[in-house]
């Protein structure tokens, strides 16, 4: 039996991990530490049994130390982060504070509890990071591996690179038992509707434009969040201490193809379920039109990386990781979830005025 702190566990990936871990390890203790900013939502884990939700800041080292002591925590799984690239361009300070200073705060508390005052029992600090720390790839470049030099190009990716280096340093300098994973673009249930897939799905349902950056040919590797959670579980159970593992979905697609898949999926859903026209009357598909008519091209994002791709050889060969879904299957599951959970996403869209 383990006792975990999951930082950012009310956010998108963190909440999916909490749900996954409770399913595979029902006896383990789980404390979710989340500041509940705009992307944190208690509803994401409200139906998960025996989870303690603490509203608090990872920068509060004293709070983290108290939680480790009070709950006899031996594992920290660190998801909490500012993660939206567009927001990092207009407001980078929050990214440095949360992603760099916050990670350091957690590391200090973990070191104090497990090494300075600890009994020497096994422990784990797992840090969840991004493939964006590696920079950008040309069309013919090999995919990112764990040995690819860091070359972050946005304030977001630079702040995540800084946190990765701190985790590495705490292992090599102090002996803290750490692992790190660098993942590709996640999608799936409970994703806050500012990211491409939920934003464009919900825009298509409401008849709003689908604004595509540049020429739409920026390439990403798409990873269903549940496959990501399986990868993290494997790292926690079998990963080598001090190591980094890249976790990808093996689905390298240009953004324009993702948008077209969203449009196809929405239109097909309306064709097979006439009730959707009543629920979402502003959708082009409700009026016999095509969601693709909403596609527009807008000025490219500043510093927009052209291509990301993940080489998952290490986690496949060492830990037996294999994603269970290709993109069409994963998106079909995701679309079905959003169509069935309007009560979850509609208040978020209305409150934050995300859809545009």
Task: Describe the protein's architecture and organization.
It is a single chain. The chain has about 350 residues and is of the alpha/beta class. The chain has a domain at about 5-190 and about 220-250 and about 305-325: 3-Layer(aba) Sandwich (Rossmann fold), CATH 3.40.50. The chain contains 12 helices and 12 strands. It has helices spanning about 10-25, 60-70, 85-90, 95-115, 155-175, 195-205, 225-240, 255-270, 275-280, 315-320, 325-340, 340-350; strands at about 5, 30-35, 50-55, 75-80, 125-130, 180-185, 185, 210-215, 220-225, 245, 250-255, 295-300. Strands 3-2-1-4-5-6-10 form a 7-stranded parallel β-sheet, with helices on both faces. Helix 5 (about 155-175) links the parallel strand 5 (about 125-130) and strand 6 (about 180-185).
Compute the separation of the termini in Å. Answer: 46 Å
Sheet with the most strands: spatial strand order? 3-2-1-4-5-6-10
Give the CATH architecture of the domain at 3-191 and 222-249 and 304-325.
3-Layer(aba) Sandwich
CATH homologous superfamily designation of the domain at 3-191 and 222-249 and 304-325: NAD(P)-binding Rossmann-like Domain
Give the radius of gyration. 20 Å
Structural class: alpha/beta
> What portion of residues is helical?
40-55%
Unreliable parts: none
Q: Assess the beta-strand content as a share of residues.
A: 15-25%
Report the CATH C-level class of the domain at 3-191 and 222-249 and 304-325: Alpha Beta
SSE string, helices as H and strands as E: EHEEHEHHEHEEHEEHEEHHEHHH
Tell me, what's the shape? globular
CATH topology of the domain at 3-191 and 222-249 and 304-325: Rossmann fold
Tell me how many strands there are.
12
The average pLDDT score comes to 95
Number of helices: 12
Main β sheet profile: 7 strands, parallel
């Amino acid at each position: 039996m383990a006792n975990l702190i999951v930082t950012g566990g009310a956010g998108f990936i963190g909440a999916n991990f909490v749900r996954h871990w409770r399913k595979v390890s029902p006896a383990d203790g789980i404390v979710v530490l989340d500041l509940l900013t705009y992307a944190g939502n208690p509803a994401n884990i409200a139906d998960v049994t025996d989870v303690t939700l603490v509203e608090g800041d990872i920068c509060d080292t004293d709070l983290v130390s108290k939680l480790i002591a009070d709950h006899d925590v031996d594992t920290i799984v660190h998801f909490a982060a500012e993660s939206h690239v567009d927001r990092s361009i207009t407001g980078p300070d929050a990214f440095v504070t949360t992603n760099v200073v916050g990670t350091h705060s957690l590391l200090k508390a973990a070191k104090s509890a497990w090494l300075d005052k600890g009994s020497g029992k096994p422990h784990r600090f797992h840090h969840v990071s991004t493939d964006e720390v590696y920079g950008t790839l040309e069309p013919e470049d090999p995919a990112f591996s764990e040995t690819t030099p860091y070359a972050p190009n946005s304030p977001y990716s630079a702040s995540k690179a800084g946190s990765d280096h701190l985790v590495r340093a705490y292992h090599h300098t102090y002996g803290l038992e750490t692992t790190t994973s660098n993942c590709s673009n996640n999608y799936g249930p409970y994703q806050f509707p500012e990211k491409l897939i939920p934003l464009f799905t919900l825009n298509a349902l409401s008849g709003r434009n689908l604004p595509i950056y540049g020429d739409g040919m920026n390439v990403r590797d798409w990873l269903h969040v549940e496959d990501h959670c399986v990868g993290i579980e494997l790292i926690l159970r079998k990963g080598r201490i001090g190591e980094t593992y890249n976790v990808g979905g093996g689905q390298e697609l240009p953004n324009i193809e993702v948008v077209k898949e969203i449009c196809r999926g929405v239109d097909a859903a309306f064709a097979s379920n006439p009730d959707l026209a009543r629920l979402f009357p502003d959708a082009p598909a409700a009026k016999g039109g095509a969601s693709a008519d909403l596609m527009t091209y807008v000025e490219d994002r500043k510093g927009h990386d052209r291509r990301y791709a993940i080489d998952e050889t290490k986690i496949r060969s060492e830990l037996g990781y294999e994603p269970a879904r290709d993109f069409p299957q994963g998106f079909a599951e995701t679309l079905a979830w959003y169509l069935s959970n309007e009560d979850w996403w509609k208040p978020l869209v209305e409150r934050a005025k995300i859809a545009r």
